[in-house]
Amino acid sequence: MTFDRRIFNFAAGPATVPEEVLKQAAAEMLNWQGLGASVMEISHRGKEFMALYEETLRDLRTLMSIPETHEILLLQGGGIGQNAAIPMNLMPLGKNGPKADFLVTGIWSEKSFKEAQKYGVAHQAASSAAEKFNTIPARSSWQLSDDAAYVHYCANETIGGVEFPDIPDVDGKLLVADISSNILTKEMDISQCGVWFGGAQKNIGPSGVTIVIVRKDLMGHSMKITPSIWDWSLQAATQSMHNTPPTFAIYMAGLGFKWLLKQGGVKAIAQRNQEKANLLYDFLDQSSLYENRVTKAYRSRMNVTFFLKDENFNAEFLAQSHAAGLVALRGHKAAGGMRASIYNAMPLAGVQVLIEFMRDFERRA
């Protein structure tokens, strides 16, 4: 099926990009800044791109209130790449050899936990697997190690629709946060974590660039086996240009940051995001056909998972919603059901139209 209009795209990533950003990119595609070429065609070391690069970093520092104690790296390889880079850069800081603790609250933190096992001792300090990743384990049940280099957690589990409401208390230990799916969606105290990382393809722009925010004193401790492309200190020394950077993705991220600033910054977008999530969860909670299975205190604002209580209607629900221009609502294959990802660029109108469709479908089911 093809559309002659913009759809409401509820995909988990790559996800919706603000229409204003897409239009600017289209207008500048053939002639960026009067150079007679697109931003993809100019040297990444030329003065024009370097000016763009520095402005992109400044805007991100402004949006997230990133102090000068933390370096910003714009890398490739996504969160999966950082699942290897983080242990290779930080595990040597363990008191008795390479070791790290993991809070396993979904598929993505589980992937991080399994990848880290290749580089040292990965200790599962907490897990909600027994609860089908529908909650976050009680703080009293966490078994944090005394000799781990850091504690890793995923702030928002895209697949299961589980989100930490606050930065977890880990008794003052070094904390690493995977913010791939809730970066720039609410205010975060950068000083509370040694490392923050996430891809751009959910709340910022297209895929291709991975943001790593790392406390400067944590660099320079990498394992000897660390590939140069994953060595944070080397990347910092070369302005994330040890290899050719993803120039178009950085340019698009920069446009995304400008768009966020125009919306009023992170504080303003957080209020909008909460409003969208509240609307959808309130509808689900009163429905006789749909249900959300995540513990209310840990429901994601970004990825709203839900199930039809009679799953015989699944195929028809997906077919009709797609025909109505409500696209990519099928849940991840590991979780089943449905999922509406309502990231920064999803307008309130998109959620309202989705609820109207779901209410009508429920009446007809």
From TrEMBL:
GO cellular component annotations of the record: cytoplasm
EC number(s) from the headed UniProt entry: 2.6.1.52
Catalytic activity: O-phospho-L-serine + 2-oxoglutarate = 3-phosphooxypyruvate + L-glutamate; 4-(phosphooxy)-L-threonine + 2-oxoglutarate = (R)-3-hydroxy-2-oxo-4-phosphooxybutanoate + L-glutamate
A Pfam match: Aminotran_5
Quaternary structure and interacting proteins, as annotated: Homodimer.
UniProt pathway annotation: Amino-acid biosynthesis; L-serine biosynthesis; L-serine from 3-phospho-D-glycerate: step 2/3; Cofactor biosynthesis; pyridoxine 5'-phosphate biosynthesis; pyridoxine 5'-phosphate from D-erythrose 4-phosphate: step 3/5
This protein's UniProt keywords: Amino-acid biosynthesis, Aminotransferase, Cytoplasm, Pyridoxal phosphate, Pyridoxine biosynthesis, Serine biosynthesis, Transferase
Annotated gene: serC
Localization annotation: Cytoplasm
Domain (Aminotransferase class V) ranges: 7-354
Modified positions (N6-(pyridoxal phosphate)lysine) in chain numbering: K202
SUPFAM superfamilies: PLP-dependent transferases (SSF53383)
Functional note: Catalyzes the reversible conversion of 3-phosphohydroxypyruvate to phosphoserine and of 3-hydroxy-2-oxo-4-phosphonooxybutanoate to phosphohydroxythreonine.
InterPro entries: Aminotrans_V_dom, Pser_aminoTfrase, PyrdxlP-dep_Trfase, PyrdxlP-dep_Trfase_major, PyrdxlP-dep_Trfase_small
GO biological process: L-serine biosynthetic process; pyridoxine biosynthetic process
PANTHER family cross-referenced by the UniProt entry: PHOSPHOSERINE AMINOTRANSFERASE
Cofactor note: Binds 1 pyridoxal phosphate per subunit.
Main location: cytoplasm
Cofactor or coenzyme needed: pyridoxal 5'-phosphate
Family to which the UniProt record says this protein belongs: Belongs to the class-V pyridoxal-phosphate-dependent aminotransferase family. SerC subfamily.
Binding site for L-glutamate: R45
Transmembrane segments: none
Molecular function GO labels: O-phospho-L-serine:2-oxoglutarate aminotransferase activity; pyridoxal phosphate binding
Record-given protein name: Phosphoserine aminotransferase
Residues that coordinate or bind pyridoxal 5'-phosphate: W108, T158, D178, Q201, N243, T244
